[in-house]
Amino acid sequence: MMRPTLRALRLAAALSLLVACGDDEPTDAGVDAGTALDGEVPEDAGPMSTMRPSKRSDVAGVVDPESGTFVIFGGDDGPIVNQIPRPVFRDDTWIFEPGYGWTEVETSSAPSARARYGVAYDPVERRMFLFGGRYREEGASGDYTLFNDLWAFDFETREWEMLHEGLGVAPGPRFSPALAFDADSGTLYVAAGGLNANALSPDPAADLWAYDGTSWSEIAISGTPPSTRLFEAWAHDATRGRLVAFGGQVGDFFTPSFDDFYALDLETGAWSQLDDGSGAGPIGRFNGMLTHDEANDRYLLFGGHADPGVMNDLWAWDAASGGWSELALGDTFTGAGLGCIGNPQEIPEDYVDQDLVAPERRQGGMFEIHEGQVWLFGGESDCSDHLDDTWTYDLDADAWSEVLEARAGESCARRGDDCMCLCI
User: How far apart are CA 60 and CA 68, in angstroms?
Assistant: First the structure.
């Protein structure tokens, strides 16, 4: 019999306390605020800044190849109280500069606080598009506020600009949408995501929209789309003009996750299946991280929440010939059940065999590629917390390197502590 996921067990605990605690879907969290830092980027290779974003998940960002920097916005860094996560949504903007570190950017305007938005990079204007997301006031319960406004962050001016308020003809408000920008036509695409303000009533979107710089238009979908689901891992393949999506889950956090792989042609709106999941490849998961390695023409998949728990494996799909190959195994599950020091929900020390040279297992972080290096920041771990570390994976050396170590969210072994359980 398949074991319930850690997310499912936490959700079951949360549901039993809904009335008393006034919350719904769990999203593990923690609070640790950063501080802005100004200054020139030094010549030496190591990061000089000790500042960084607070530990957070449900966050995304893009790399600007011209400057070699990447930007993230917002996310959720709320704490956990009596096993029930209390989301706290951020509205801060951070830039990471290799050789210097993190800097908080003070802007004259910005999107409102939110998490689970979608992003895409515009190489023509050197800007990051941000669309959608969700928000709820700290300590509140019930429905979330969903967004469908469109923003752009300019890497040169380091300012935000609202491009469309979401009024009139536009994609409906949603969280976790997929975004892609076609530089040749100047078109931004938005696909899929979740339409449900109530986290306990999943309502996946199945539409595709195009923004031409002034107005939105809907593109008809054809072919055989993935079955109804949320929380796929998405990436944009600019070479082929398509979005690709791996896995996902129906949204109840109990049903087994998907392990199939699909492509959506952005010009025609046609879906096609790349892999049915029956062969060798990643196990099913949701909230994985996916990007296109254009230099090697492959899609890289990292982490996500699989049915045993959160993952930190790294896989590559050959975009030209098809087929998965495993680049880094990461931690492996032993089959041990939950329960430690008298707490049936706690994770025992032998739950996984740990690969201590790999980042902590996670979902919902930033995962982007630039000049042969994959950059990883943040996310949610199995240790009931957010992460605030920064890592790179060298695609030539096939090796992980820790740039900034985590201050929370790691297992005892990874942080060098002698603990009774995996995390405490």
Answer: 17
pLDDT over 90 at 215, yes or no: yes
Query: What residue type is 165 in one-letter code?
Result: E
C-alpha distances out from residue 148 to 106, 143, 319, 350, 364, Å: 23, 16, 31, 44, 20
pTM: 0.90
411 and 423 Cβ atoms separated by less than 8 Å: yes
What distance in Å separates the CA atoms of residue 82 and residue 101, rounded to the nearest whole number?
A: 34
**DSSP secondary structure of 5-72:** PHHHHHHHHHHHTHHHH---S--------------PPPSSSS------PPSBBS-EEEEETTTTEEEE
Which DSSP string corresponds to 237-301? ETTTTEEEEE--B-SSSSSPPP--EEEEETTT-EEEEEE-S-SSSPPPEES-EEEEETTTTEEEE
Give the H or E element holding residue 236: strand 233-237
308 vs 368: CA distance, rounded Å? 26
In contact, 70 and 63? CB cutoff 8 Å: yes
What would the pLDDT profile of 265-319 be if each residue is shown by its tens digit?
Answer: 999 999 999 999 999 999 999 999 999 999 999 999 999 999 899 999 999 999 9
Helix (H) or strand (E) holding 415: helix 412-415
pLDDT at position 50 is: 84
